[in-house]
Structure formats: C-alpha cells, structure tokens
C-alpha cells in the first residue's frame, strides 16, 4: 500500500484528540500501540510506522490496557502535526469567498466601527479620561452579554420567528441567502465577544497611560489619592483581562483547555471586582445612577447569577453504558429544555464544566411512571473527563465468555453526585425550527443534539431527513438508536460495512435526493463540519454547523 493511499484511507487516526471519531480505534490507541512496540526506537521510526500503516491495529483488549499509558508530547506532535494528510487538504484550506461572507468577521468590523472613531476623537478632542473608563465598561458589558444564555435564547427565538416569516416571501433565492446570513450571524456572536475583549484592552491601556498625563495637564479634575486608586484598579483589571485573552488564543486554548476555563472564571471574577472598585472610586456625576455604575452592576449580575441556578443532583441515572458512550437521565427542574438546547455537567463546579446536548426524553418503552419529565444526554468518549466518566461507570467485572465489560443495568445510579447547571443556552441546531424540511447530518455520537427533534412529541420541524454516519450505530447506541431508526427518511452509512466516506460528497448527494429540503444541519468534528459547510456554500445550499467558540 502506498503512503498516499494509506493516508487517504486512514486519516481518522490523525484527527484532533478531543473529537469523537466513528472508527473503533482512535489515533491515541494507534500511537500508544506503536509506542509499545517501539519503546526504545527513535521518533523517526515511530513516524515511519505511523505513515506506513504498520503495525496492524491491536486487539481490543490490548487497546484497553494501553488507554492508561501516557503519550509523550513529542509523539503527539508527530501524529497530529508533522504527518501530512491528503484527505484533509480540502478540509483545512481557507476558501476566500467563504470567509469573506463569514459573519464572525462582520461582528469584528462592527466592534471596530464603534470603537475606532471614538479612539480618534479622544486624542483629537482632548476628552477626559472618564471616556476610556466608560468605554471599557461598555465593551465588557457587550462581551459578557454575548455569553449570557437567556439573552442568546431571546435572540434565537426572534431569529427563528423572523426566518419563518421571511421564507414565506417570494424571491426565494435572495430570501434564502438573507435567512442564511441572519442565522449564521446569530451563531457567530462570539465575534462580538472577542472583538469587544480586544477593545477592552485597548481602552484600558489608553486610560492607564493618559489619565496621569491629562491629570498633569489639568484636564482630569481628581485628587492625587483618587488618581492612584483609579490607576491601581485599572491596572488589576488590565492584568486580569490580559491573562484571559492570552489563554483564549486558539492554539493555547486547545492545548490547555482546563487552564483556559479556570483563568476565564477566576480572572474574570477578579476583573469584575476591579471594575466595581474602579467605578465606585471614580463616582462621577449622577452617582450612583451614572452609566458606569449601572453597567458594572449589570456585568456583576450576569457573571454571578448562573451560580444560583445550579443544583447537586444525586438521582442521575445511567440508561446505557458502553466503552464508547454513556447515556444519563436527569430531571430538568428549573428550566424547560427544548430541542437544540445544551446543558452543563460537573463533578467539581469551581474546576471545570462540560457542555452536552439535550437528547430528549427517555425512550417510551423503558420510561417509568416517575420519569415523564426526565431528560437525557448522550456523552461520548472525547477527552479525559468523558473518558474517566465512562470508565468509572463501567462494571469492573468482565464477562468471561466474550471478554468485554458486561452491560450496565438500566436505571443504575451514577457513581457519584453530579452538579448540573440549569442554564440551557441554545445551540446552532435550535435554528432548525426555522425551516419546514431539513437534512440532519450526524457522525457517531453527533446524533445526540439531533435526537430531540426526532421524537414524535416534538414536531418542531415538519419533515426531518437524517443522514447518520457511524460504526455500527444501531448496536452502539442501543435503545436510543431506535428513535433515529423510526424516522422514515433515514440514510445510514455504517462505516464497518461501507468504509469511511468522503462526507461532503455524501451530504450533497443525500441532500439532492430530497427535492424539497431547505437546509443542512451537521454535527461532526471541526474538519468534517468545515468541509461540508464549504461544499454546501459553493453549491448554494444553506448549511449550519458548530462554529469555533460559538
């Protein structure tokens, strides 16, 4: 087998480790196995073995033993970065026309349009340093608001109502483009979040530098003691935001996600405290009803109130557990989780939170009388936290006949209490209700966010077509797969029988088989999602997928 052929057929082994793949073995497994056979070999030998396809894939029991073996950082880099994949060439290429139309940058341009003219006026009109202080608070308010789940829910509801109304108008070619861009603009509100964060730093620097200068020029009428207090609080705020922005840089965030989350939380809290101290020291006219104080109090409320609506749930139950996925059932309690919404779980609330899709109610044939309102989430093995959750829940005994862990009994309690954040933001799949007929595309456990739409009691989309790509999906997801297989317009691509497809081509082919289909919603890893989005974009098909930092 040539190197080119092997890479094109085996690319799944080199995808990002945080993504759940459909193949039975992940790239981590292959690297561990190769490493175990070449324990004392130099890295170039390991690289050659990876590219050539040797050795053969290990048996499942060996893979399980190797999961606990740490992978050296340099071996990780070889498997992810240095091995070039022809199969991923189109996926990773940046199509200029696609990105020019991308709303993420529109939001950046809007932030610049609102801030740059004011920066120019500040220096040309000799404005007071109170202006940079006010603009810092305004930009922080906008950045925090873009992360507020209730605000996003309102925007998504307005977006879907508006889209449904527009799609009834004549001139469908233009209307579909307008709806597509409106939906994507809402899905990419993170552009406002990051854009405002950058201008927060710029305005903070302007205040720190110009406040003493304007004070010495007699243009900043405050006492020396107050100036010192303002400078100190502004300096602490600047440090907090700088640390948050540094760990939010995409490569650093991917490599150190837990650190990113913790710095955003604790340095964010520090920034809020510094902001409150700053505005109360500055006081200003109409205090305490001036804009700076009111906005600072709004920021504090938006940052801290979500902690009031989280609960420690001791009645979380296991509906299915396997080596690759686990299904949890829980009571929604404080909020109504609708199709397309997300929910957060944690064992250590101050340390880390993990977001998963709400997969809908418990399947009717295994639902008990007291579980009518219970909801479920399917959690696939996609990283350290999910891996530990699945492994800890699996029984320690092994079925001697088949040599694999026995099935967990339905309704088994989770091995430890779980904190649930009942703050359910909408995901991009929420926008599917704007259309009357859509094609849902899922790879592996990506079926979970779609599954809630497929329940007969939730006909939010009039006609639901599904393309499911996975390795033995019916066996892997058991009772949950039955909900999907009950859909009449279902296309299943079982990779164990048909091999790994070129997903973008398969999606286009499937979409064309449904003549009245209006849009595609894909839940997959980032390279596949990007490939399908670009392919659909150049085929004039509205396609939505998870956006970076959305």
Q: TL;DR of this structure?
A:
By secondary structure, the chain is α/β, with parallel strands linked by helices. 51% of the residues lie in helices and 12% in strands.
Structure description:
This protein has 550 residues and is α/β, with parallel strands linked by helices. Helices cover 51% and strands 12% of the residues. It has helices spanning 3-9, 27-37, 43-52, 60-66, 73-82, 89-92, 96-100, 103-124, 130-145, 149-166, 172-187, 190-216, 224-247, 250-255, 257-282, 291-304, 384-393, 448-454, 473-485, 495-498, 503-512, 526-537; strands spanning 310-313, 317-321, 325-330, 342-346, 354-357, 360-361, 375-380, 412-413, 418-421, 437-443, 463-470, 490-494, 519-523, 543-545. A 5-stranded antiparallel β-sheet has the order 6-7-3-2-8. Strands 12-11-10-13-14 form a 5-stranded parallel β-sheet, sandwiched between helices. α13 (224-247) runs antiparallel to α15.
Number of strands: 14
Rounded radius of gyration (Å): 26 Å
Mean pLDDT: 78
The number of helical elements comes to 22
Helix proportion range = 40-55%
Neighbour order of strands in the largest sheet = 6-7-3-2-8
Structural class: alpha/beta
Termini separation (Å)? Answer: 41 Å
Shape: globular
Main sheet, how many strands, which sense, barrel? 5 strands, antiparallel
Beta content comes to 5-15%
Low-confidence stretches: 1-67, 73-93, 397-406
């Amino acid at each position: 087998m040539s190197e080119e052929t092997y890479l094109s057929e085996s690319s799944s082994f080199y995808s990002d480790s945080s993504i759940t793949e459909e193949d039975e073995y992940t790239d981590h497994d292959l690297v561990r196995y190769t490493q175990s056979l070449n324990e004392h070999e130099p890295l170039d030998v390991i690289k050659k073995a990876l590219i050539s396809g040797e050795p053969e894939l290990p048996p499942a029991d060996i893979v399980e033993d190797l999961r606990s073996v740490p992978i050296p950082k340099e071996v990780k880099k070889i498997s992810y970065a240095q091995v070039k994949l022809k199969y991923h060439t189109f996926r990773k290429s940046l199509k200029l026309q696609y990105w020019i139309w991308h709303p993420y940058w529109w939001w950046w341009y809007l932030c610049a349009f609102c801030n740059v003219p004011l920066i120019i006026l500040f220096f040309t009109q000799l404005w007071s340093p109170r202006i940079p202080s006010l603009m810092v608070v305004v930009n922080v308010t906008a950045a925090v608001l873009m992360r507020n789940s209730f605000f996003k829910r309102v925007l998504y509801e307005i977006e879907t109502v508006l889209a449904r109304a527009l799609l009834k108008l004549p001139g469908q070619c233009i209307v579909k483009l307008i709806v597509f861009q409106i939906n994507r603009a809402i899905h990419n509100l993170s552009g406002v979040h990051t854009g405002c964060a950058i201008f927060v730093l710029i305005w903070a620097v302007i205040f720190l530098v110009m406040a003493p200068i304007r004070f010495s020029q007699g243009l900043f009428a405050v006492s020396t003691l107050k100036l010192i207090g303002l400078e100190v609080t502004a300096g602490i705020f600047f440090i907090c935001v700088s640390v948050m922005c540094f760990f939010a840089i995409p490569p650093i965030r991917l490599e150190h996600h837990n650190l990113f989350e913790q710095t955003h939380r604790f340095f964010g809290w520090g920034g809020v405290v510094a902001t409150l101290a700053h505005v109360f020291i500055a006081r200003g006219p109409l205090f305490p009803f001036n804009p700076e104080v009111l906005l600072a109090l709004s920021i504090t409320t938006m940052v801290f109130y979500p902690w009031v609506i989280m609960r420690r749930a001791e009645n979380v139950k296991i509906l299915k557990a396997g080596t690759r996925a686990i299904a949890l059932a829980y009571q929604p309690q404080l909020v109504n989780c609708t199709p397309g919404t997300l929910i957060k779980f944690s064992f250590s609330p101050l340390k880390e939170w993990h977001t998963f899709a709400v997969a809908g109610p418990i399947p009717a044939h295994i639902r008990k009388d007291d579980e009518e309102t219970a909801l479920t989430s399917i959690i696939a093995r996609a990283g350290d936290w999910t891996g530990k959750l699945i492994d800890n829940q699996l029984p320690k005994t092994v079925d001697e006949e088949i040599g694999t862990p026995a099935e967990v009994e339905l309704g088994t309690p989770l091995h430890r209490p779980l904190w649930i954040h009942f703050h359910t933001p909408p995901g991009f799949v929420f926008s599917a209700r704007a259309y009357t007929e859509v094609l849902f595309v899922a790879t592996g456990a990506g079926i979970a966010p779609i599954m809630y739409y497929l329940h007969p009691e939730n006909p939010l989309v009039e006609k639901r077509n599904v393309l499911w790509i996975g390795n033995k999906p019916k066996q892997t997801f058991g009772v949950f797969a039955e909900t999907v297989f009950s859909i009449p317009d279902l296309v299943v691509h079982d990779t164990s029988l048909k091999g790994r497809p070129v997903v973008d081509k398969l999606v286009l082919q499937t979409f064309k088989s449904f003549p009245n289909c209006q849009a595609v919603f894909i839940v997959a890893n980032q390279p596949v999602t990007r490939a399908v989005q670009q392919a659909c974009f150049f085929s004039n098909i509205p396609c939505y997928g998870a956006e970076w930092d959305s």
